[in-house]
Amino acid sequence: MIRYTIGLIAALAATASGARDWPDVVRSSIYVPVSDGTRLAVNIYRPANATEAAADKLPVIFSFTPYRARFRDDKGHVVELALDDRLALRSLIAAGYVVATADIRGKGASFGRRRGFQDRTEARDGYALIEWLARQPFSTGKVGMIGCSYLGGTTFQTLTTLPPSLKAAFIGASDFDKYAFVRRGGIPTQFNTRPDEPPAVDLASIPVDADRDGAELKAAVAQHAANTPMAPLWYGMPYRDSVSPQTGNRFWDEVAAYPYFKAIRASGVPTYFWGNWQDEPTAQVIEGAANVGGKFLAGPGSHCVPPPGFDFTGEVRRYFDHYLKGVDNGIDRAPRATWWLERGDGTGSFQKTSWLPGTTSKPQRWFLAGARSRTAKSSNDGILDRTAGDTGSDKFTVDYNLPSADYFAFWAGPMDAHGLSYTSKPLAAPVTLVGAPVAHLAVSADKLDADVFVYIDEIHPDGKDEVLAFGRLKLSHRKLSAAPYDTMGLPWHSGMTADVAPLPIGTVAELAIPLTPVSRELPVGARLRFTITGADPRQRDLKAIQQVPPPVLTIARGSASSVDLPVLP
Q1: Distance (Å, whole) CA 53 – CA 366
Q2: Using CA atoms, how far apart are residues 351 and 339, in angstroms rounded to an integer?
Q3: Alpha helices, DSSP H, located in 136-227
Q4: E strand or H helix at 77, and its extent?
Q5: Cα–Cα distance measured from residue 396 to residue 551, given in angstroms and rounded to the nearest whole number
Q6: Quick check: 509 and 516 in contact, CB under 8 A?
Q7: DSSP states of 255-318 as a string?
Q8: How many angstroms separate the CA atoms of 197 and 227, rounded?
Q9: Would you state the pLDDT for residue 15?
Q10: What is the four-CA torsion angle of 257, 260, 262, 263, rounded to 10 degrees?
Q11: How high is the pLDDT of residue 11?
Q12: Cys-Cys link to 525, which of 89, 374, 461, 484 (CB 3.0-4.6 A)?
């Protein structure tokens, strides 16, 4: 066993909230075999005073990662998931929880082959580890699970197996319907499509305690060579019912969480869903909360960043204190949703409501109304207005010469210089947008298929602009279908082979495109801008999918094309 000092911050956090102060931690790591005998690397962190580990049985918090639970970084420093506080894990140890972290099979120090991405094998592994943790002598038998991004996905996937000892789940930035997320509108973008890491990455993992010479780590990493390659997996399944050449089955069905939402609700396992507004998965987070139930948090900022100005660590602690320790702290009676409402000047406030954001908003229709003087960045700048204006059409040639995007561009940048844009007059009164906008476009093309990207920007009174929401849809995926879960009234495209069809050249199609959710109070003097393009720089396969010559898209304006904005009364 190895003893660490957690540090002053975690100790103070525990003391301030009334918990017993556990300033230190005793760590151990072992291989745990799961149902098929594959050995997974598990790390156990027990709260301690000096070298003395807590003698009492304690509840356990578990986090399951593909990103190496313990490793050495490029500078030789040891990095440990459990001793970082982005997921409040370090503070939870100080507050009297055992924290366990594990590498998924095929990653880190774990043995095995990774089949796909969050498949049922991985979900069953989570089940096995939770039940193993519940049986250990340090455990009360109650286990909570927490994660964000991929770790949120392992939490959600494990939850779908309903382990008897799992008593609470905190799910951050994870998808409810993986096809609708990874290939939203039939178009893959940057999430999940990155290249696989070389073996050196996993070889930087810290061996488990008994593997003193690292021989077992090397043997485990050697098995990772048989992992399913990620980018070919996602690119190789264009339709929801595609059979993957990599896995030999309809893999989108296997990795979807939504088929289990009724069973999760019936089980009574408490859930807490978390996302941030400037993060593409938040649309899926809201749908997860709408269908599974439980609490919801949306903060300002980007992917998996603890919301500034909000006691995130305290919220996580209160949640697990109530459901794993039986503390009557009122979290079960608190308003269901906590969400940030941002104002145009960069300030904002957290709202506490009994309803999920967007469910009480009313659609306010804005039309692509007509031409205006050529004074903006785009030579095709038009008017966005509450009245339909003149009929007619605008056309543009898809621009593939786009600015480079960050490797992990979790949010889009303004695209008005690369397509058609329609801008409103300055607002005469504030407008509060909460929820997902929907674009309704009448579109034709000179190709049988093309991609359509849409963006809503706020242009501040000082002229600065930023993207508030964005969406995408391939013309061939335009058919609307009934969803197998509650979409909160948003249009849904199945992506099934039978529902996908080319658009005859010159034929006008009516597109309904849901955009990412927004929470923003627009001030007097701000303007709205709606942009349409045929490509986005965040597509990692942009060069491979370019059409030569590029498509020409025609958009009917007036009453034929509009945007419904979710206005909070």
Answers
A1: 62
A2: 5
A3: 150-160, 178-182, 199-203, 215-223
A4: none
A5: 9
A6: no
A7: T-SGGGHHHHHHHT--EEEEEETTSTTHHHHHHHHHHH-SEEEEESSSTTPPPTTS-HHHHHHH
A8: 11
A9: 40
A10: -140
A11: 42
A12: 461
Spatial separation of the C-alpha atoms in residues 556 and 444, rounded to whole Å:
9
Q: How many residues does the chain have?
A: 569
Answer yes or no: are the C-beta atoms of 536 and 398 closer than 8 Å: no
Distance CA 158, CA 150 (A): 12
In 372-508 the beta strands, taken as DSSP E runs, fall at: 381-385, 392-397, 420-423, 431-435, 438-445, 451-459, 465-474
Angle 69-299-283 from CA coordinates, rounded to 5°: 85
Q: With 80 as the cut, is the pLDDT of residue 73 above it?
A: yes
pTM here is 0.94
**Quick one: 135 exposed, middle or buried, by C-beta within 10 A (0-12, 13-18, 19+)?**
exposed
pLDDT > 70? residue 9? no
How far is Cα 381 from Cα 364, in angstroms, rounded to an integer? 22
User: By C-alpha distance, which of 361, 139, 393, 470 is closest to 129?
Assistant: 139
Mean pLDDT of the chain: 93
CA 403 remoteness from chain centre? 24
| CA-CA-CA-CA torsion sign (88, 94, 98, 101) | positive
Q: Is the pLDDT of residue 17 over 50?
A: no
Residues 393/554, Cβ–Cβ less than 8 Å: yes
Alpha carbon distance 438, 322 (integer Å): 39
**Quick check: 479 and 494 in contact, CB under 8 A?**
yes
Residues 157, 482, 561: CA angle, nearest 5 degrees? 115
Taking only the tens place, the pLDDT of each residue in 441-476 is 999 999 999 999 999 999 999 999 999 999 999 999
Which amino acid makes up residue 299?
A: G
| Residue 541, pLDDT score | 85
Single-letter residue type at 396:
F
Q: Report the C-alpha gap between 394 and 531 in whole angstroms.
A: 12
Kind of pairing between the strands at 362-371 and 552-567: antiparallel
Q: Which residues contact 129 (CB under 8 A, 6 or more apart)?
A: 32, 34, 40, 42, 62, 64, 100, 102
Sequence-ordered list of residues with C-beta below 8 angstroms from that of 1, at least 6 positions apart, any chain: 26, 27, 28, 53, 209
Task: Give the start-end residues of each E strand in 420-541.
Answer: 420-423, 431-435, 438-445, 451-459, 465-474, 509-514, 518-522, 527-533
Residue 43's H or E segment, with its range, is strand 39-49
SS3 42: strand
Cα(510)–Cα(442) distance, integer angstroms: 5
CA–CA distance, 317 with 133 (Å, rounded to integer): 20
* Separation of CA 56 from chain center: 37
Beta bridge partners of 442: 510, 556
Rounded to whole angstroms, the Cα distance separating 250 from 311 reads 41
CA distance 526 to 457: 10
Calpha distance 455→224 (Å, rounded): 40
CB contact at 8 A, 150 and 262: no
